[in-house]
From TrEMBL:
This is Acyl-CoA hydrolase. Residues 36-148 form the HotDog ACOT-type domain. It holds the Pfam family 4HBT. It comes from Flavobacterium dankookense. Belongs to the acyl coenzyme A hydrolase family. GO terms for biological process: acyl-CoA metabolic process; fatty acid catabolic process. Keywords: Hydrolase. GO terms for molecular function: long-chain fatty acyl-CoA hydrolase activity. GO terms for cellular component: cytosol.
């Protein structure tokens, strides 16, 4: 039985166990992709029902918008069902007033075995001049899963621009830091992270 299984399926080791996928599904969409292929842009207005007593957009509303954009970006990269694994970083640098035009830009910054880091930039547009100002940024992690909720592999990512390359390199350091803090990686094995201090 195991021999038959191994002929038709590929087994991927993970920290939490093993998962499998059919060779056809693995090969079907495993060509490396570029960040631009996952780019997702959501633009919307800030309405009165979405603001706090200071007439600024609720942080939770912005998080929901970012989560939707990140979900679409992850799906475009993996072409699979994706679920939010973590919100690694959110910076509310600038309040977003009522009536603002808000644009959330999301794209995959790095792909690992089954997870994808999504980097998000939030822009607000001046109503009169049309000049865009960066208001916020965030980093989410999504995992691609099959119909039963088990992780499946995703294509690797090839960054193109200087910004994409910088975010790609930093993503590995962020992942190693997360694993070290969770006790899932020995600090001595976090080579990319250690390189920052050597």
């Amino acid at each position: 039985m195991l021999g038959c299984l191994l002929k038709n399926y590929k087994i991927y080791p993970e920290k939490s166990g093993f998962f499998i996928c059919s060779n056809y599904l693995c090969k079907k969409s495993m060509s490396p992709k570029h960040p631009s292929e996952s780019l997702t842009i959501l633009t919307d207005l800030v309405l009165p029902s979405e603001t706090n007593p200071l007439n600024n957009l609720f942080g939770g509303e912005l998080l929901a918008r970012m989560d939707r954009a990140a979900s679409i970006a992850a799906r475009r990269h993996s072409r699979r069902i994706t679920v939010t694994a973590s919100v690694n970083h959110v910076a509310f640098n600038k309040s977003i007033p009522l009536g603002s035009v808000v644009t959330v830009e999301a794209k995959v910054s790095r792909a690992f075995t089954s997870s994808m880091e999504i980097y998000l930039d939030v822009w607000i547009e001046d109503r009169e001049s049309g000049i865009r100002t960066k208001a916020n940024e965030a980093i989410y992690t999504f995992v691609a899963v099959n119909e039963t909720g088990n992780p499946v592999p995703v294509p690797q990512l090839i960054p193109e621009t200087e910004e994409e390359k910088a975010r790609f390199d930093a993503a590995l350091r962020r992942k190693q830091l997360s694993l070290v803090l969770a006790g899932k990686m020995n600090p001595h094995d976090a080579t990319e992270l250690k390189a920052l201090f050597v």
